[in-house]
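Hey team,

Sharing the Thiazole synthase run so nobody has to redo it. Sequence (261 residues) first:
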Amino acid sequence: MNDALVIAGKSYASRLLVGTGKYRDFAETRAAIDASGAEIVTVAIRRTNIGQNPDEPNLLDVLPPGRFTILPNTAGCYSADDAVRTLRLARELLDGHALVKLEVLGDPQTLFPNMPETLKAAETLVKDGFEVMVYCSDDPIQAKMLEEIGCVAVMPLASLIGSGMGILNPWNLRLIIDNAKVPVIVDAGVGTASDAAIAMELGCDGVLMNTAIAAAREPVRMAGAMKKAVEAGREAFLAGRMPRKLYSADPSSPTAGLIGS
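Structure output:
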């Protein structure tokens, strides 16, 4: 825990956050999450039963809140009102749980965030006592606005949800990171382990993913790969990469004092 991720005052050893959708069954869900080492798991309240449907299998039986930090999210919400209502339900189902992930979508084709509605919902939720982690566009100005509203983490997309396209705009991410006083967690678009490593090398505090693991040919193995990638990327960031030098060779071995010279 020497380099813990701290969100809303709580420390986490893992910087990989994972979703719980799209797996074959609950057994695969748990196996993949165990392999990932994730401590925070996000749950779509409108799509997954965590107690609102007592006659159906309950995800919390597989991922008990005593073992994992459950992060209810508003996937499938297209207005601030729907998102706020969904998270108030989640708080009731989880006995007053305050940490939530807000996402307000703009359209069903791209799942790009509707930022005016996101800002509106964030303001309401923060005033209502929620600790809001928020999915947002990679706009540095709007990310800063969300931080100033009181969100405990900003979560800019790397590329569209479920696209697997990786980080399309590293420059905007760096602008967000350099100006943020809360954790910056890449959310959406990661496709494979190298994408996760790049996000961490840029200086992101964490990475959240679901499809990249669940849609892999072997989800459990991919979860393990993502764990390693996030750890390696963080270590590389802390170590500090060598400077890039165009057209300037610098041999690894000394050129002076060569044998026979």
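The chain has a mean pLDDT of 91.

Ping me if you want the raw files.
A.
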